[in-house]
User: What shape does this take?
Amino acid sequence: MSGAALAPRRPWRGRRIVLGVCGGIAAYKVAQLARDLTQLGAEVDVVMTRSARRFVGALTFEALTGRPVRTRLIESGRALEHIRLAREADLVCVAPATADFLTRAAAGRGNDLLGAVLLATRAPVLICPAMNDAMWAHAATRANVDRVRGYGYVVVEPAVGPLAHGEGEGPGRLPDPAELREHIGRALVGAGPLHGKRVLVTAGPTREPVDAVRVLSNRSSGRMGYALAAAAWRRGADVLLITGPTELAPPVGARLQRADTADAMAEAVGAALHGADVLLMAAAVADFRPAAAAAGKIKKREQPDAIALEPTPDVLAETRPCRPPHLVAVGFALETDDAVANARAKLEQKALDLIVLNAAGEPGAGFEVATNRVTLIGRDGEPGELPLLPKDEVAERILDHIETLVELKNVGA
Assistant: This one.
């Protein structure tokens, strides 16, 4: 999702984030991060070290966040600024965290505003190191990372990629802002019912070969499943995303497994089901496939009169005898007629805890769009209709419901 497409939403909306910026070349990326967090609805208080101001001007951050940038520990009229920032923060994030900063943080030094905020805050702290690969590999740096982790700080490992000009590639690169904001989102959510749970999500279409180049498929973009995987990871889950072919970037934090056909998806889901706590079957698995796919490309002059079809495996139904007793199983239904009745029937036939109903053909909902309108149908109670919402927010609403189901199953276990 590009920065221009961002809008206020959970878990960033209404939260107070102190963004500490240290003096490294990667500081230029943090300007984009500050903008993204602000567009997501957070109040961002930027604290810059003296060295950071040599790389990016304070005015840049003020223009992007709409808030004054803090730079001094001792300032007339603001003697307790570090206490105020520390107390009001929902999260403190330091990016880029330089080798020198890690040394000072590991020693617990409070000789500048950022160090004093870290000592005074009781909010979660996220440290995002960025430096030359040799500096990152040095024993002193590794010891400092271990020490700040011992304080309870979360350290986001540097990415591997091109470093500063002439330094080649290696570990030490600051992750891109899109990845950092997801780590910030996870830290903001904290420990909830999905924390530490294993969540298995399927997404996207499947492709059933007709010949060597043609397939039977559908219009699923995979957005709903990917949004569910991203939101579950932000809630602290261990997420495996089994996906059909899509053009979407993998969600931050989720493990990704490709499965192009219904057979491949059935095999992958069956292998991963043991030990799962939640199953989210958001993939649009093809219902039929050619009974016999041609080995080569069918030439136009050889056009067959018909292509015989056969049913594909019902991936969700096949999980039923293999599900762990505590598993929360969620299915998705795309219906055109008698939508609620058909979805309820699927809920019963496949022994689901929840089914998410899409009405096919509704403007702005379903395939190939960024929004969705769904109805949540559980084993008890009336259907819960959601308004038309971005798929990211639909995912949050679905997971709110799933967290309740997880808690109920844990109580009954």
